Amino acid sequence: xxxxxAGLLAYLLGFVSGLVFLLIEKNxxxxxxxxxxSIIVFCALFLLRxxxxxxxxxxxxxxxxxxxxxxxxxxxxxxxxxQGEKFKLPWIGDIAEKSS
Length: 100
Hints:
Distance between the termini: 19 Å
Helix content: over 70%
Strand content: under 5%
Radius of gyration: 14 Å
Shape: elongated
Largest sheet: none
Oligomer: single chain
Number of helices: 5
């Protein structure tokens, strides 16, 4: 499989597909980077939603905002990976690069 396709697929199912690609891809740094970034981004979004949702009013607003942010990140990161770009998100991209 081409690296750009694997990078795109690492984001397809959020942290689940990121974990799959991180486990099966041992050599390709590009794919491993996108897999790790996917895991970090979508786990962080999941945890933020889980923590904030029980808070009255703020939880609902934050859930809506995080949903929009999550979908936007999902699309942008898949497109960038497909284009063969190692698109690093602030802070998260650095962690993903060191961990991949």
